[in-house]
Amino acid sequence: MFIGREQELRFFEDKYNAPGGQLVVLYGRRRIGKTELLHEFAKGKPHVFYSCREITDGQQLAAFSERLLNADSPAAKYISVFADWEAAFKAFRQSIVQASPQAKTVASSAQPKENARKKPVQAASGRKRSSQ
User: Fold this and answer.
1) For the segment 69-107, what is each residue's pLDDT rounded down to a tens digit?
2) Is beta strand 106-110 parallel, antiparallel or unpaired with respect to 47-51?
3) The whole model's pTM is what?
4) Helix, strand, coil proportions of the chain in percent (round to 5)?
5) Which of 107, 121, 113, 112 shows the shortest CA–CA distance to 24?
6) Angle at Cα 34 formed by Cα 30 and Cα 36, nearest 5°?
7) DSSP state at residue 81
């Protein structure tokens, strides 16, 4: 059951319904419901949810391609991995447009729980700080 977060959901709906494309970056401490918020927002909307992993860019593209091509993409008849990220996102958009020319899309990416380890990150001052 999803409770609360009406303000955040309203923010996402406003961005979703705004003219043109929108990019929203959602970040915060782990275990506060970011992924669940994205799942709740995406309900009933054309979307693909992909969880990033700590792998090389080529492996990430292959995994993302597999996720898109499993989502009934017309490109699945011809390829198994997209040549680059631009091709992958063009195919994603094209599959949505074919389904509904006026549709907007939701693409979300999240770091999976098993990779959400505490790691040092570079702070603005140049000192290392914890990512949690």
Assistant:
1) 876 677 788 899 999 999 998 887 777 777 666 667 666
2) parallel
3) 0.64
4) 40, 10, 45
5) 107
6) 120
7) S
